[in-house]
Amino acid sequence: MLFFLDLIAPHKQLSLKATVLDSNLCILTSEIVNFDSELPHYKTKDGVYRDSSINGRIVSPTLMWVEALDLILQRLQDSKKIDFNKLAAVSGSGQQHGSVYWKKGSSNILSSLDPRKPLVDQFGQAFSTRESPIWMDSSTTEQCRAIENAVGGPLELSKLTGSRAYERFTGPQIRRIFETQPEVYNDTERISLVSSFVASVLIGKYACIDHTDGSGMNLMDIKERVWSKQALKATAPDLEEKLGTLAPAHAVAGLIAPYFVQRYQFNKECLVIQCSGDNPNSLAGLTINTPGDLAISLGTSDTVFGITMDHKPSIEGHVLPNPVDPESYMVMLCYKNGSLTREDIRDRCADKSWDVFNQYLKQAPALNGGKLGFYYKDHEILPPLPIGYHRYTLENYKGDTLDGVTEHEVKEFDPPSEIRALIEGQFLSMRGHAERFGMPSPPKRIIATGGASANHSILTSIASIFGCNVYTVQRPDSASLGAALRAAHGWLCNRNGGFVPISCLYKDRLENTAFGSKLVATVEDDKLVAKYGVLVKKRMEIENQLVQKLGR
Ligand code: ADP
Questions:
Q1: Is the CB of 499 under 6 A from ligand 1?
Q2: What CA–CA distances, in Å, run from 463 to 309, 448, 457, 521?
């Protein structure tokens, strides 16, 4: 028995990837279609169009995704590495927030696909706009403020939907289409997310939006997991009927459509499990599933996600239903200043070398003698601060208490102190904000991913600051793997007639699957962890002052 996924996001909007797992959860094969180079007739750059006439408008041609789906399935078939007839379940991962607008009458197109013709020839008239707004779009600032105001402010919207309004979120995108292209809105019978769009094509009818990806829209009541009447009203008229109903991420969306059975010889019993967003699928792929698990992705930007039982809304970060456990929540914190800021300080202080950077990091003592730094090479999201570097020294600081400790702003640090202030600063901020969001402290374990997770010195600092073991995974494509694992999970839940924990799939054998992880850093000094616990309070205090003075 095999499981399979298709994906529109190893690197967000750039390509479509398919990964096939066998029943031991090992990778059988994978394929990738790069949009720019392999579907050049769409003339995208990085998979998107940047609209020069409208500030911040970034879209992708929906038909390109449709054509890529046939292309990747054809390649899997030609490779002869898998037997489609043995696929038990399929799921998918779509870039979060992006949306697709199905034209009135398109449900008929979906339900009567001709297997002799490629999908792209049949979907030409299926969309009321041929261009899907995607996560990179930032043209909806006005709509964000209007939606927040209509429900009583950003915190109210966050309490209701799990996040304040963000430009890339689907609700503001829908409101903008309603305001600027009312003919498109009125001609739309269904709005899908990228994830539920993939599921819809696979089952040949409109698929539900799943609870987790649904919380990236500013439209779903995060507690009740139904559309929020208040948020719908704040967004656009008659919206509920265009969204359909919601479903948990582990639910069956439907059976694979006859098109795929006839064209690629899928088994007609093959289940399509609800598709979800790329971040939720990454969480699944990293096997983060119970409270106390934390993942830190150290890419161009840094992202933290973890699991909590509590729903503690805030105007920072995002709360989403856990895609692999209906009882708990997934919390996500996004930092703009990640690797690019580390690179900037490395280039200025450490001869552009990670080796020198790591030597300096070791050279400066843990806690940095009370030197704290805030480094924002780009406008930061968390906290909302403008570009700027701020450095402080603490006086009367011994490490155990903040009694009598005062801070003074200084202009610069020596290179080792600068590098330690950067690394301690970034991870103290993560610890502080994760705790503020109600995530268990210390975490049970941390899984580190992304480019900078290759840096052992950084991972050692993370273990000391958070006070827990740090692991890395074998494979970088966690979203793609996660969707395949969720396909298996949905299949298992369906077979058992109800929800079962995802860990049942790999209990006691994780190390022998594609999802195994490796212990890379441990806690060496418990007293130091406690001292970081004290220091994080001071850091949050100074950060609050900076936000009051300079915050956007
Ligand atoms: P993306 O977010 O684009 O997927 P990656 O996860 O591939 O990015 O991470 C790329 C970043 O990883 C680069 O910007 C680089 O600064 C960082 N990186 C790579 N190797 C190291 C290292 N040894 N130490 C610290 N950072 C590193």
A1: no
A2: 23, 11, 10, 6
Q: What is the pLDDT of residues 202-226, one digit of tens each?
A: 999 999 999 999 999 999 999 999 9
Whole-number Å distance between alpha carbons of 285 and 19: 12
Residue 2's pLDDT band (cuts 50, 70, 90) = low
Q: How far does residue 297's CA lie from ligand 1's centre (Å)?
A: 10
Residue 404 CB neighbour total at 10 angstroms: 9
Cβ–Cβ < 8 Å for 219, 171: yes
Amino acid at residue number 115: P
Residue nearest to atom 19 of ligand 1 (CA): 451
Number of Cβ atoms within 10 Å of the Cβ of 52: 7
- Ligand 1: centre distance to CA 488 (Å): 31
pLDDT in tens, 219-255: 999 999 999 999 999 999 999 999 999 999 999 999 9
How far apart are alpha carbons 141 and 143 in whole angstroms? Answer: 5
> For residue 301, with 0-12 CB atoms within 10 Å meaning exposed, 13-18 middle and 19 or more buried, which class applies?
middle
457 close to ligand 1 (CB < 6 Angstrom): no
Q: Is the dihedral of CA 325, 441, 382, 350 positive or negative?
A: negative
Provide the pairing of β-strand 226-227 with 188-193. Answer: unpaired
Give strand ranges (E) for 214-322.
220-221, 226-227, 246-247, 252-255, 271-273, 276-277, 293-298, 302-308, 318-321
Ligand 1 pocket test: which of 300, 342, 346, 472 has the largest number of ligand atoms within 8 Å of its C-beta? 300
Place of tokens 């698929």: 207
* 42 pocket-lining for ligand 1 (C-beta < 6 Å): no
Q: Is the CB of 345 under 6 A from ligand 1?
A: no
What's residue 9's pLDDT? 52
Half-sphere exposure of 325 (CA within 13 A, CB side): 19
Q: Is 101 helix (H, G, I), strand (E, B) or coil?
A: strand
Is 300 a pocket residue for ligand 1 (Cβ < 6 Å)?
A: yes
Q: Are 483 and 13 in contact (CB under 8 A)?
A: no
Alpha-carbon distance of 239 to 177, in angstroms, equals: 12
CB of 264 within 6 A of ligand 1: the answer is no
What domains lie within the chain, and their CATH numbers? 3-281 (3.30.420.40), 339-439+456-462+522-550 (3.30.420.40)
Strand partners for 220: 227
Radius of gyration of the chain (CA): 24
